[in-house]
Amino acid sequence: MNNLKTDHVTLGYGEKTILNDLNIEVPKGEITVFVGGNGCGKSTLLRSMARLLKPHSGNVVLDGKAISKMSTKSVAQQLAILPQSPVTPEGLTVLQLVKQGRYPYQNWFKQWSQDDEDAVEQALRDTNLEELKERTVDSLSGGQRQRAWIAMTLAQDTDIILLDEPTTYLDMTYQIEILDLLFELNEREGRTVVMVLHDLNLASRYAHNIVALKDQTVYAQGKPEEIVTCKFVQDVFSMTCNVTSDPIFGTPMCIPYGRGRCLIKESVMSNEPNVG
Q: Could you tell me if 235 and 219 are in contact, meaning their C-beta atoms sit under 8 angstroms apart?
């Protein structure tokens, strides 16, 4: 199984530095989630790991090799990325979209094969899209559309899958559906999954490993139950909260302080938050 890490990577756009001198090793066979405030560099880091953004300095290392020195086809056979809010060409069917995941395996000497056919069918089964494969992608619901893109990523048949905010713009039902699917793939096939998520509670529920970004570097990295505390939330998100245990899953659950319909008494608001 392939290993993915950053080696003293500095990232930015033009003269602006976003992340500086990062050393992160993604645990193999686990789910890692990048969290942090808006503009902290989560998507920038993910894009660099997929070789879509060249570091200012340092290297992203895939299976012991600098990813910048690898061919596009070689990278695509080991690592797949689903960008945020991908756009589907009009009229493309689910089957046609999923087949695009097999392009890294095509060349002049090897055209469409039974292996390609099997990978596509397996991806459709894994995402419960077999009955929808002849539908156009733009006719699907938000959750179905996202599953189609994930199916394309799965058809690429890589050990590592990178996803940039895969639940963005989806309602609660579809968010859980997508995250459950990724969790099951990780459990069943041992695929390494790296995601950017905005919802800290969902990140804590599904991630084996959380990487929190702040001030151009890694503020904390580790198991959610070890690092997600009130101080963590205050430092990373500048938000006062209480952190308790999810009553169903036992993972950290953040309850933010704020002004809702049921106002919290000023005496409670002024107390130091629980750091559990």
A: yes
Q: How far apart are the first and last CA of the chain?
A: 36
- Give bridge partners of residue 245 from the DSSP assignment: 252
**pLDDT tens per residue, range 205-237:** 999 999 999 999 999 999 999 999 999 999 999
Per-position DSSP letters for 47-99, written without gaps between them = HHHTTSS--SEEEEEETTEEGGGS-HHHHHTTEEEE-SS--PPTT-BHHHHHH
| Maximum Cα interatomic distance, the chain, rounded to a whole number of Å | 73
HSE-up of residue 35 (Cα within 13 Å, Cβ side): 29
Which amino acid, one-letter code, is at 184?
E
pTM to 2 decimal places = 0.90
H helices, E strands: number in the chain: 10, 12
Q: How many CA atoms lie within 13 A of 193 on its CB side?
A: 31
111 token code pair: 């055209």
